Amino acid sequence: MINENIETKVKVKNKKNIHSTSRITLSKAACEKVNLWMNQINEQFKGMINLKRNDLVSILLEEFHGKLPFQVFDKIKSEKLTDVQKAKWIYLQLKNAESNNESISFDSLLKSTNKNIRLKEKKNHKLPISNNAKIDIYS
User: Could you give the CA distance from residue 98 to residue 96 in angstroms, rounded to a whole number?
Assistant: First the structure.
């Protein structure tokens, strides 16, 4: 008996540039905003376009330039960065420096955790996207 490898070719209809290995959970406020935008799209196109929420979010994310505006960093820092996280980071930096026989100052590390991100962009709280359009992230 001869054991043969049989290859089966299956055609899969793929949309271009689809990467579905991860999922994102949105906050309640973000979900409400996406639903509002979906309603606006449905009203604008009178139901002619069958757009999924994933498609909308992908379109919006693809429109943003590569670098995040400093306002986003400020928002993340104010909402997500805790003193406990800062202390853990300082501890790890001190531990790594010690294991590498490097000198590092606790005070300099503490100062670096408390630095404010300086806004180098206009303070209009708008995120630039391609085609010279703007999206207000705080409305």
Answer: 5
Question: Are the CB atoms for 90 and 82 separated by under 8 Å?
Answer: no
pLDDT in tens, 7-48: 433 334 445 555 556 788 899 999 999 999 999 999 999 889
Check residue 64 and report its DSSP letter.
B
Contact 121, 68 (CB under 8 A): no
Within 10 angstroms of residue 18's Cβ, the number of other Cβ atoms is 8
> Domain extents for the chain?
25-63, 65-139
**Any idea of the CA torsion for 122, 55, 33, 132, to the nearest 10 degrees?**
20
Write out pLDDT tens, residues 44-96: 998 898 899 999 998 988 887 788 888 888 888 888 889 999 999 999 999 99
- Residue 58: exposed, middle, or buried by beta-carbon count in 10 A (0-12, 13-18, 19+)? middle
Give 126's strand partners: 136
Q: Rg for the chain (alpha carbons), in Å?
A: 24
